[in-house]
Amino acid sequence: MRQEPWTWAQVPNQTGRVAVVTGATSGTGYEAARILAACRATVVLACRNLPKAGEAAQRIRVLHPGARVEVQGLDLASLASVRQAAADLLGRFDRLDLLLNNAGVMVPPYGKTEDGFELQLGTNHFGPFALTGLLMDRLLATPGSRVATMSSNAHRMGRIYADDLNFERGYRAWAAYGQSKLANLLFAYELDRRLAAAGAATRSVAAHPGWARTELQRHAGWISWLRVAGLESLLSQDAFGGAQPLLRAATDPAVKGGEYFGPSGFQEMKGAPMPVQSDARSRDEGLQRWMWRLSEQSTGVVYPL
Ligand SMILES: NC(=O)c1ccc[n+]([C@@H]2O[C@H](COP(=O)([O-])OP(=O)(O)OC[C@H]3O[C@@H](n4cnc5c(N)ncnc54)[C@H](OP(=O)(O)O)[C@@H]3O)[C@@H](O)[C@H]2O)c1
Fold first, then answer.
1. CA 229 to chain centre
2. Ligand 1 proximity of 52 Cβ (cutoff 6 Å)
3. If you take atom 34 of ligand 1, which residue's CA is the nearest one?
4. Which residue in 179, 128, 95 sits closest to 303, CA to CA?
5. Which residue's CA is minimally distant from atom 23 of ligand 1?
6. Pick from 145, 179, 210, 176: which is nearest to 281 by CA?
7. 8 A C-beta contact, residue 151 and residue 258
8. CATH for the stretch 14-299
9. CA 185, CA 278: separation in Å to the nearest integer?
10. pTM of the predicted model as reported, rounded to 2 decimal places
């Protein structure tokens, strides 16, 4: 029997729950935060640009009167900022039901984070790894809590460049993006296995948005050619559509730990969210453990698991 596609209308009532969404100023993070607020969660927009975050929060309040939306400063390209944000969040909220590791950058010019990591690996992986670890005790203490991490179809072209993680011998922007999005999946799966082994009720899941029309493509010039050729709208979906796999991974009661969600259409580029498969490299448990140890050493954040 064919199942009806999942829609955001199936997000359970979130009254009394606290959700932190990183990178919620625009794109999929904004849309996921908006829907969670509409479903009555207290939603924290964890963002580096506070004026932009304040405007996003206000837009949500106007669209959904009564929405509980707050802002937290967080720059994932700075471990000091991540530590401060985690300390603030622990002080502000006595529970944490959902952590949506959504924020990310794609193919920017070469740069490094404050701590010397290549910008994409640092922002997309090391920052979220540290944030999640620093919030882990609160997640563990909150019944039914979940961590949902945004990856990408680009994980398929990803390798972990163990001998030159920070691309110091020559920058290849797409290879670095692929590395960071593979790291997201290695993290999400390893975290779920560690949670299960510890007997914790917290779950870790992952998602990807397919191709969503957001601000992410600002550094990918060829996409404007597809736009001119009229192909972009054919192949992609809007930010709201792109947020659905993350929302489903975070809230569908039927989801199991370690599952990965993406769009159901052609090449997983658009369509209703469904469980999807990631490639073999992302499922390599040896690589997952190696990346975990490296991430603990690199960030100085050791998980209480
Ligand atoms: N769009 C797609 O087709 C696509 C495909 C695959 C995967 N993804 C993934 O989806 C996620 C969301 O991307 P999007 O498409 O919604 O792009 P977006 O509109 O550019 O949103 C990215 C968000 O991340 C935030 N961010 C960037 N660097 C940050 C930092 N150092 N600290 C804190 N926040 C930071 C941005 O903040 P500012 O407003 O301050 O820039 C923004 O809120 C990313 O993880 C991306 O890799 C997207």
1. 30
2. yes
3. 23
4. 128
5. 23
6. 179
7. no
8. 3.40.50.720
9. 8
10. 0.97
Instruction: Indicate which atom in ligand 1 lies nearest the CA of residue 177.
Output: 47
Does residue 303 carry a catalytic annotation?
Answer: no
77 pocket-lining for ligand 1 (C-beta < 6 Å): yes
The number of the ligand 1 atom at minimal distance from the alpha carbon of 81 is 32
C-alpha 193: how far from its chain's center? Answer: 18
- What is the chain's length? 305
> 65: which residues sit within 8 A by CB, 6+ positions away?
none
Which DSSP letter does residue 107 get?
A: S
Q: Tens-of-pLDDT digits for all 305 residues of the chain?
A: 567 899 999 999 999 999 999 999 999 999 999 999 999 999 999 999 999 999 999 999 999 999 999 999 999 999 999 999 999 999 999 999 999 999 999 999 999 999 999 999 999 999 999 999 999 999 999 999 999 999 999 999 999 999 999 999 999 999 999 999 999 999 999 999 999 999 999 999 999 999 999 988 777 766 766 776 677 788 899 999 999 999 999 999 999 999 999 999 999 999 999 999 999 999 999 999 999 999 999 999 999 99
Residue 283 corresponds to which tokens in the numbers above? 């499922």
As a whole number of angstroms, the distance between CA 86 and CA 301 comes to 12
* Structural tokens at position 55: 């405007």
Question: Which two structure tokens, joined as six digits, stand for 255?
Answer: 């989801």
Biggest CA-to-CA distance, the chain:
54
**Residue 106, strand partner residues:** none
CA distance linking residue 56 with residue 174, whole number of Å = 29
The CB of 250 under 6 Å from ligand 1? The reply is no
- 226 to 49, 159, 183: CA distances (angstroms): 30, 27, 28
- Parse the chain into domains and list their residue ranges: 14-299
Tokens 């920017």 belong to which residue? 108
